[in-house]
What does this fold into?
Amino acid sequence: MESLGNYKQKQHRINGIYNMSLFGKNIPWIKYLFFAGLSVFVSCEEVIKIDLHSAGPELVADGIIEQDSVGWIRLTGTTDYFNTGEPGYIENATVTLTDEKGESEILDYKGNGLYRGVSIKGKPFRSYIMQIAGENFSYAASSKLFPAPRLYSVSYKESVFQHPGGSMKSYTIDMKFSDDPMAENFYNIEFYNNGKPGDNGYTLIRDSFFASGDTITFSPRWMNFEAGDRVTVKVYSIDRNTYAYYNQLNDILDAGMGGSSTPYNPVSNFGSSVLGYFRACSGTSFTSVVK
Amino acid sequence: MFMTEHYFCRNSMVMALLFLFFFQANGQDKFTVSGKISDALTGEDLAGASVYKEGTTTGVSSNSYGFYSLTLPRGNHKLSISYIGYAGGTREISLDKDLTLNIKLDPAQTLLEEVIVSTERSNRNITSVGMSIEKLDMKQIETVPVLFGEKDVLKTIQLLPGISSVSEGSSGFSVRGGSVDQNLILLDEAPVYSASHLLGFFSVFNSDALKNISVFKGGIPAQYGGRASSVLDISMKDGNNQAYSVSGGIGLISSRLTLEGPVIKDKMAFIVSGRRSYADLVGKGTGLLDNDITLYFYDLNAKMNYTINDNNRVYLSGYFGKDDFGFSDIGMQWGNSTGTLRWNHLFSSRLFSNSTLIYSNYDYGFNIGSDADLTSGIEDAGFKQDFTLYKSPGSTLRFGLSTTFHTFNPGKLRVGTSKISEIVLDQKQAAESAIYLSDNHKLNKKISAEYGLRLSMFNQLGAGWSNIYNQSNLKTDSSYFTAGKVMQTYLRFEPRISVNYQFSESSSVKASFNRMAQYLHLLSNSTSGQPTDTWIPSTTYIKPTIASQFALGYFRNFSGDSYELSVESYYKYLQNVTDYEDGTNVILNENIEAYILSGKGRSYGTELYLKKRSGRLNGWVSYTLARTENKIEGINNSGWYPSKYDKSHNFSVVINYQPRKRLSLSASWVFYTGNAVTFPSGKYEFGEKLWPYYTERNGYRMPAYHRLDLNVHIKGKEKKRFESAWDLSVYNLYNRHNAYTITFRESETVTGTTEAVRLSLFGIVPAVTWNFRF
It folds into this structure.
């Protein structure tokens, strides 16, 4: 499932300066507003001790191939929720990366569950298959790599929301990047503020949210920065299935809160017995200081 | 529309046959005394007042319009009239023809007038057939302490057995394990689709404008239908037809003002009651809220009634409410409006008729300045015809029909200043109709029964698309239906029966069975019910929910009816309970019906209730032990799992104490098991972030909830016609941090570790309200 229903049947595109970016990522405004309202009544938020069951361990596969880079995957096991140690590493697996041209390699084990390739590097418009096999498991997942967009500009403006009594002004970001109008594209945008991730989840958008044309103007008003912040923006092209998977991760990020669905495990492209995902993607990034 | 018209014709024929049948059975040596029972000071109809032939068990109680009808043999009779809280009386009548006797009762001027707890005949709970019914009068609601001192019917009923709160401070409630959308909430017979203000913390019902409240948890009479779990029937005050009066209150977050009076004394009266919250102003003043935040609601109740003559009376009533909530140019607005036009007509002294035209509308809007807006809602227009035939003192028949035309707007999203449609989910239409017949029959001195049948029909109507989906939820085919064309029809038989076996004047055992069909479904991802929730009709893929409930109860009164005890057990079985596939987004999802999973549910429990009805010290203790589970293909490995409304223990105590005439103290304490929730049973790392790993659905419990509230009510000295009172209340007296949510996240302080975070809403909240009347 993805946000905002099925767009396949809705090919309307709109003109105008403003666009669907306002409603990206599961309509965050409604949730935002709900929690902002709730905060009026909140008396306290505290970290508590709670007993949780012990399940698993289940196989976790975190695999990726980026443009012009070799592929890698980390195979681990789930741990107890409050476990502070390392997870169990899967050390004797055979991992094979194959591209749609039939080229294939076995990834080298590098320790700590990490397997890395040497020869195959990500190329645009190519599909990749990652196979993992161990003593009692064998799974495969595929993903297609799309070229990275060109980031034209990143600028800041004063936010319409300012913290009451805050000494620093809040700023929001506007960015422009290229989009192939002839194809249906999906993007994951990551923000780093002074080197730290600016958002817990994924900021996901697809070009059908936006006015037609070859440029996307995106203004995530829920991202706030202060003057002097060093902000890095990364825009990744991802395929449709990766987009759907990240969307599910976003869903469980605030699971249990009002307005969210009952928690569940996002469905991996390795199958329902595996947690995690294998994705092919390509990104471009830009760093600037908020003024 | 063809089907609906056809249906109407069939209805009319059935009605004609019923009439023929009823009018045959009528003896000639008996006559009927009938009329209206009302409050002598205000002219308000008194519903549920008893009229009995003195020294016998022959009698009736007045209906919701204060009308009664009693057929007795020719001769002289002494009638005894009673209504708790009023000075009862007797009337001597001589029956040699049908007689109209309108009765006015004076409110009892006793020391304890503020703490009268029941409006019923002293042992009505024992003698009546009805079970699983809770009736509240407004006096009772006034004394129960509540959050921010806002008197609230929906919060007060949550203190009764079998009814529980769905979350902290919420006006949403669950009845015998049912979900929020399984409650039919009627305000002067019009359905209210979203009964909450301010994100669910306040109900839309202004208690100043209300007269009676009845909650049916089971044994639901045949005249009600359309929801699986319960009926909350609320009637508004009619307006004082004797004298003008102004009343109101000034509270911490809202103020109220009510105006009522006669237009024509004894014949025509009006009432207008308004309420406006200023939570945002208070919040800004105290620095809790940012200056560009909007957060308020207002509502208006208005009603007018006109007694044309003894046989005809009309009522026009309406409700209009709105919430506005936002930051600078981003905001949400939502609100209900309802309207009811009723005509009471007496065809004879024994056949009472009420014809009703109903309108109800709920709409929700979200906007970002002029950039974009999202709207959704539901609109109802309906007609209802109800008859009550007082066939004999031992048999009262109720029959009627209703039809409602629903228009659903599942969601429209418009973007840009030019307002070009971006996503417009197709509007949906449906007609919901029903005919019913029931007989409340006293078989002998010990056994009485109410049995009936409701036949309901639901037609999803064009214009619209009917889609076919494959296993992967992809649309494979669609067919278009033109306006008025029937797309899908459901027909359901809903039998209802209640039996009372009376051991003595003070004890009885009752049993009931009822089946309810629910054709409307609420798309919601939250437990408590939020303004964003959207109503949709049953379609080919979404089948109506059917609830069948058995209940058995023992009822006993002690010490001259001043204590009442009841024990009730129930078992409820539900078909077509719905949930969503994992990750379904319910907002603006055009193909939502493909993502809805359906299964079965069961709910069972026992409720204990002990109530002291009068005296300086009165109140009640209620305890419910219950279980609610669902079994839905595709969820929890298709096995049974606890519903999110499952609460094992639910306990509440309400105590009122009046040490002096002008002072009363009240306290309430609640304790309940936390809701069933899904927590992670492990975690894993993906994309440099830690994610929770979930196993069983609703396999965990929120911590137990408990809270103590207090209220002190001080009446001012009476000056001529002016009365005033102060209410000082404290919510959550011992400042318990009850969990509103528990969430799991990566620690912000220690990287690579995870933690559980509890969010608590209300700490100790004191409030003060000043009320007046003149």
Notes: Chain A has two helices and 18 strands. The longest helix of chain A spans residues 240-253.
